[in-house]
Write a structure and sequence with these properties.
The chain has 173 residues and is an all-alpha fold. Helix content is 72%, strand content 0%.
Length: 173
């Protein structure tokens, strides 16, 4: 997965933009859209796990929930795209979902929370490595929004990551 961290910012940007050019109405478009989701979540996963490994072991946060959330969010989005072609619930069509609405809505809310969490965890780990101490949201919110708004944020994040990864390893990590 660390291959994403070694790409230049323009290469990662091109991957994101090219995948957005395809329509999701065809099976090829849906497949490319799923590939895009996997690349985006993979990029976040790479940031979170790589930066977590650079933090000294005595203060390193556990990454199990982060890893599980990355997997769950990726699988859920792939299932929604490939099987359902996406879905839209609004005041005009909610009755057509029947009892599935009571399954989809809580699951969707939980996975939205999980997506926000994985972005937060990656931003927190990157900020922690930059600052040299475990960060909280008040110090990592800029990177949080940069990861969330990835087509713009990756131009700032990717060079910082590559600079960090080019440093010699610190003792105790």
């Amino acid at each position: 997965m660390n291959v994403f961290l070694h790409l230049k910012a323009f290469q990662l940007f091109l991957i994101f933009i090219v995948s957005a050019l395809f329509t999701s109405s065809s099976i090829l478009g849906r497949t490319i859209e799923c590939l895009f989701v996997c690349i985006y979540i993979g990029w976040i996963y790479s940031i979170g796990t790589s930066m977590n490994e650079l933090i000294p072991t005595n203060v390193r946060p556990r990454a199990a929930y982060f890893k599980a959330s990355c997997l769950l969010v990726s699988l859920w989005i792939i299932v929604i795209i490939m099987i359902f072609g996406g879905y839209s619930i609004d005041q005009n069509n909610y009755r057509s979902y029947g009892y599935w609405l009571w399954v989809l809505l809580p699951l969707h809310l939980y996975l939205t929370f999980s997506l926000i969490y994985i972005i937060y965890f990656a931003a927190k780990m990157l900020t922690s490595v930059i600052d040299g101490e475990i960060a909280d949201f008040s110090t990592s919110y800029k990177l949080f929004f940069a990861i969330w708004i990835y087509p713009i944020g990756l131009w700032f994040i990717q060079p910082v990551i590559q600079k960090i990864l080019s440093r010699p390893p610190q003792p105790g990590t």
